[in-house]
Amino acid sequence: MFNIILFGPPGSGKGTQSENLIAKYNLKHLSTGDLLRSEIAAGTPLGVEAKKLMDAGQLVPDEVVVGMISSALDANPQVNGFLFDGFPRTTAQAEALDKLLKLKGTEIGVVLALEVSDEELVKRLLNRGLTSGRSDDTNENVIRNRIVEYKNKTAIVADYYKPFDKVKNIKGEGTLDEIFALLSKEIDLRLSAN
Ligand code: AMP
Predict the structure, then answer these.
(1) What is the pLDDT of residues 2-22, one digit of tens each?
(2) What angle do CA 67, 139, 158 make, to 5 degrees?
(3) Span from the CA of 109 to the centroid of ligand 1 (angstroms)
(4) Among candidates 152, 185, 131, 127, which has minimal Cα distance to 11?
(5) How far apart are CA 101 and CA 119, in angstroms?
(6) What is the mean pLDDT of residues 46-60?
(7) Which residues pair with 168 in a beta bridge?
(8) From 46, 89, 143, mutation site for ligand 1 pocket: most ligand atoms within 8 A of C-beta
(9) Which of 41, 46, 85, 118 is the residue whose CA sits 20 to 30 A from 64?
């Protein structure tokens, strides 16, 4: 199995690039944001609670997202690998993920960290808000809160993986094809070294 974390702030292109990467490398896409939005759409108690935090641009509790990821790993035993998108977002989540993967005899192969400037992120998210139907994409204050949460709690997650030489920074500004080529090149390098 080869497992990838697509890392980066909100609006850095994780969702878009994930779609292309899972098709090319035949991976299972696990986006905690998408899983949470499914819970909201289904009107579950978890979804109702999560929506309040998501609408404020805050992270939902670690136990909630770790529980969802644990179920998703169990539900997909026969895959080539997982592409984690929007997870882990805290060091506690990264530690929990390591344990879950270890139980399955696997680990994270590479962390691809997309880098995009704050002003470009705000511009992209407001633009996405015109069509995404996501309430957290329409309000600039909520968008800025999400970026602050990223800086305060998520950016350090890259440090967690650095000692294992697993993090590769990728310039997340350019055309979709250019960024996809950079991501693919790094994955191919790691796969051939495996
Ligand atoms: P995303 O779709 O990844 O931009 O996530 C949208 C929102 O869902 C975030 O702003 C958080 O409120 C919540 N969320 C998604 N993934 C996580 C996570 N791994 N940990 C905590 N909250 C999350």
Answers:
(1) 999 999 999 999 999 999 999
(2) 45
(3) 22
(4) 127
(5) 36
(6) 97
(7) 112
(8) 89
(9) 118
Q: Is 54 in the pocket of ligand 1 (CB under 6 A)?
A: yes
Domains of the chain: residue spans and CATH: 3-188 (3.40.50.300)
One-letter amino acid of 53: L
Contact call for residues 147 and 118 (beta carbons, < 8 A): yes
Q: Which of 184, 171, 126, 147 is nearest to 57 (CA)?
A: 147
What single-letter amino acid sits at 29? Answer: H
Residues 111 and 5: beta-carbon distance below 8 Å: yes
DSSP-derived pairing of the beta strands 3-7 and 28-31: unpaired
CA of 32 to the centre of ligand 1 (A): 6
Count the Cβ atoms, other than its own, within 10 Å of residue 190. Answer: 16
The yes-or-no answer on residue 168 being catalytic is: no
At 149-190, the pLDDT tens digits run 999 999 999 999 998 889 999 999 999 999 999 999 999 999
Q: Which ligand 1 atom is nearest residue 59's CA?
A: 22
Report the atom number in ligand 1 closest to the C-alpha of 36.
Answer: 8
Q: Tell me if the pTM is above 0.85.
A: yes
Told to judge if 124 belongs to the known catalytic residues of this protein, a careful annotator would answer: no
Q: Name the residue with the closest Cα to ligand 1, atom 14.
A: 33
